[in-house]
Automatic annotation (TrEMBL):
Family matches, as InterPro entries: AKR, Aldo/ket_reductase_CS, NAD(P)_OxRdtase_dom_sf, NADP_OxRdtase_dom
Domain NADP-dependent oxidoreductase: 15-288
Sections of the chain in a coiled coil: none
PANTHER family reported for this sequence: ALDO/KETO REDUCTASE (PTHR11732)
NADP listed as a keyword: yes
Similarity remark: Belongs to the aldo/keto reductase family.
Site (Lowers pKa of active site Tyr): 77
Pfam assignment, any one: Aldo_ket_red
Protein name as it appears in the record: Aldo/keto reductase
Keywords in alphabetical order: NADP, Oxidoreductase
Lineage: Bacteria, Pseudomonadati, Bacteroidota, Cytophagia, Cytophagales
Amino acid sequence: MKNLLFENGDKMPTLGLGTWKSKPNEVYKAVLHAIQVGYRHIDCAYVYKNENEIGQAISDAIAKGMVKREDLWITSKLWNDAHLPQDVLPAIQNTLKDLQLDYLDLYLVHWPVALKKGVGLPTDPSDFLTKDQAPLADTWAEMEKLHKKGLTRQIGVSNFNSAKIEALKANASIMPTVNQVEYHPYLPQEKLKEYCDNNGIYITGYGPLGAAYRVADNEVDHPILLENTVLQEIAAKHSATVAQVVLAWAIEKGVSVVPKSVNFKRIEENFAAANLSLDNEAIKIISNLGGPYRYTHGSAWVGEISPYDFSDIWEECL
């Protein structure tokens, strides 16, 4: 398994298990099985509402001697309703309690969008906090305090474009070390990745397999990545699945990926992608498949009721 190395010596495995939309009573088994298979990177978030089950799985795996805490990489995220300075510390404390951990390996600001306390998804203008009411600089200052307290070894962001990260530089004493964004061959995020590479920021790709369904956006039908015939040909050549090829491509590009699954067979197949090597020709072909197609639209955060727009989150406004 390849790792991404941080300045302090921390190593983040390039392939992890995503847990978004993993249902109750499924995510526990999925995490436990993933650890048995060899996963050491688990991607979580408060808003997924399943960190308590994930925590129990981690605790049980450690108790059974399957893994040591120091061998795991656990990521979680600060939800949008906890951006005000007084809410940041309690948020990570709640996550640590649910995960049954003393510290996280990585804590991310989930979105550059602020909501009032207790709001999950906004339905009214009053659900939002404006950029002036909840400046990202203030939120980030509290993230730095979490790092200094030892509650998280690394701090980063998620769904941030280069402009948002650049704005943090003005007052930051610690720069984000990771930016988690949608990343796959139909959305290779070349401009954003170049910016992150130049600033010592790793990319973690969520949704690395695209979507399992078609997405219609402005009358454009977004295709299913895993049905791409070119990818199918490359997979056949390598005696691999298309999913394995797509994951291996991202890893070869220096990106960590967190595909979500509760299916034991897919969990095992995805993990095997870490051992798949692609030649330069295949990587070049995959990098130029087409698109860009964005499957995570972020439409909940923009529109008539919101003080934010797509330029606040996406590098390319698709």
